[in-house]
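User: quick one
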Amino acid sequence: MFDTSKKLVLPKKFYIRPVLAVAKDLLGKVLIKTESKKMFAGRIVEVEAYDGSIDEASHSYNGKTKRNEVMFNTGGCLYVYFTYGAHFCSNIVTGKEGYGNAVLIRAVEPLAGIDYMIVNRFNRELKSEKELCNLTSGPGKVSKAFGFDSSYSGMDLTNSSVYLLDQPRLNSNKIGISKRIGITRSVDLPWRFFEIGNPYLSR
DNA sequence: CCACGGATTGGCT
DNA sequence: GCCAATCCGTGGA
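Assistant: Done. Structure below.
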């Protein structure tokens, strides 16, 4: 299904680029988490870019705080935050140290570890096959399915049990672009990117 | 110290 | 389609 050989792990330099370029290039890449003998894998199909320098919706817009400090790290690590008193959202930090840029993972297409994801999300059997499309079709859902919580924030994606596998870049005619979802500031920036027609999109 | 509101989700109307 | 749930980081007093 996919090759997990080391040479395909995305290197640091992939992440140390402008956040919009990284966001688009993340589509189609495979997110992996290993936990003892379990492996979780999902193909990224929807993302949003956040840029602390000009984007009022970004957590980093008002500078570094205890909550967002990981966003200011050198690109290539996870930034996980807690919101609405209930959900974790997982991001990939991009750019050079000090920039406060990140890409929110809004949806993935499950590839492996699906039974573990079902346990993490629902803690029961699926009621129907249709629930598969509800497994990882949103930022809180992806985090729950993979088991990402605040203890994962700051993890290095080039040297830990969480990493990304390189895959061919999506053809640009497969990439949809829209405004971001669920924000109240800088609402018009067209910084959401998704694979057109993929059944695992958040909407 | 306290009030506010959020990069969401799922259940109910 | 609408709205409550449910924490806690953040910012103003």
